[in-house]
Amino acid sequence: MKKTFILAIAVLFSATVFAQGDVAKQIMKMKDYDQAASLLQSNLANLSAEAKAKCYNKLVDIMWPAIEKEGSSETQSEDFYDALYNAYVNAFECNKYDQQPNDKGQVKPKFYTKNRDRLYNIRPFLINGGEAARQNNDFPRAYKFWGMYVDSSVDPLFDEVDKSGDQYVGEIAYYAAVLGMQVKDYAGVDKYTDIAMKDPKKANEAMELKLAAASQGLHSRTDSIAFAGKVEEALAKYPESDLLFGTLVQTYSDLGMNDKMDVVFEKKLAQDPNNFVVWNIRGQRAMQKQELDDAIANFRKALSAKPEEPQVLTFLGACLLDKASKAEEKIKGRITPEAKKELNKYYEEAKENLEKAKRIDPKKEGSNWGYALFRCYYALYGPNDDRTKAAEADAN
Fold first, then answer.
1. By the 8 A CB rule, do 207 and 241 touch?
2. How far apart (Å, rounded) are the C-alpha atoms in residues 313 and 308?
3. Are the beta carbons of 56 and 40 closer than 8 angstroms?
4. Rounded Cα gap, residues 152 and 149, in angstroms
5. Could you write out the DSSP letters of every residue in 245-275?
6. Which of 34, 62, 15 is nearest to 54 (CA)?
7. Three-state SS for 65?
8. What is the phi/psi pair of residue 355, to 5°?
9. CA–CA gap between residue 178 and residue 162 (Å, rounded)
10. Are 82 and 69 spatial neighbours (Cβ–Cβ below 8 Å)?
11. What stretch of H or E contains 40?
């Protein structure tokens, strides 16, 4: 029985070896790419790493004469770009298996140098293919080509190439990420924005895209907490990013996670004691609680960092008004000249900030300074002054 079993195993092993060699031989003889690719895929599980590398290289070889011919002409067809894309896909697969140890445990790649040398320098054709597709509003196709241009910049096949002259990677990575948003490939957006952020010219825009992709599909508190975690990770990698910091703070605020927010604030102030976002949000939190002295102090610190922010100027003006009004309410009887003079200090400072907000944002697009400024003029000049009347019109 044991002898019969061993014989059966030997027969099966021989059949497998024969099948591998037979399939590989068939592919080596083929001239039609689609037929060869189909035969390879249907038999891939039965092939050794060496046979896979050989067959994938053959797929590149089948397409190469047409790529070489059309690549030297003035114009290129859609078929050319498809063939080029497939050449990279198959060359990368070839290299993956070509780098695996053989039966003796040795790594002796046979196709690495050939594919590296013939494919690296023609990568810009992928940019052209993407642009041609984009002009035809074929965003999935454009995304495919631009994505391959970026992917090829980091593929192991080209690890030994001098890439110092590859000046377009960051920019194309950004545009690939834009198209990734269009086709809803958010994992691709995340990947390409990481590369785009290495280009100083595209870093901020890429960061915005990265956050936009990460924020997709936030339907529950659990989703939002997971999103906050992603932003935390990104902020750890890019601690100087105001966009990431602001997004994380806003997310914590929306979730009511003030303790987490305070921890982040302390870390940020250790790096940047005059951080605008920290002092602005602390000012708003104090204002909501009617802790006017804290709010005023925090808004003043925020404006020391960004003195032209109309919303913060308006918040500060409103808090100064409220402080003066509350102080006035506590005074019993007739207000003395000395008390009036003290109160007017708050009204004057409020007026100064609110008038500045008006100059910066006359249409009240980012700050609603109108009613607070009217209150200032009313307190300082009385109801019948022309300035008060004009301010009342502005407030309505």
1. yes
2. 8
3. yes
4. 5
5. HHHHHHHHHHHT-HHHHHHHHHHHHHH-TT-
6. 62
7. helix
8. -65, -35
9. 28
10. no
11. helix 33-43
d(CA 178, CA 210): 10
* Sequence-ordered list of residues with C-beta below 8 angstroms from that of 289, at least 6 positions apart, any chain: none
Residue 8: CB partners within 8 Å, gap ≥ 6? none
Residue 164's SS3 state is coil
- Between CA 8 and CA 12 the distance in angstroms is 6
* Cβ atoms within 10 Å, residue 193: 29
Largest Cα–Cα distance of the chain, in whole Å?
Answer: 118
Residue 172's contacts (CB-CB under 8 Å, 6 or more residues apart) are: 127, 130, 146, 149, 150
Q: What are phi and psi of 366, to 5 degrees?
A: -125, 0
Q: What is the pLDDT of residues 114-128, one digit of tens each?
A: 999 999 999 999 999
- pLDDT digits 0-9 by tens, 38-80: 999 999 999 999 999 999 999 999 999 999 999 999 889 999 9
If phi over 0 gives left and psi between -120 and 50 gives alpha, with beta otherwise, what is residue 290?
left
Phi-psi region of 5 (alpha: psi -120 to 50; beta: other; left: phi over 0): alpha
Q: Are the CB atoms for 202 and 174 separated by under 8 Å?
A: yes
Q: Which two tokens mark 248? A: 């994380």
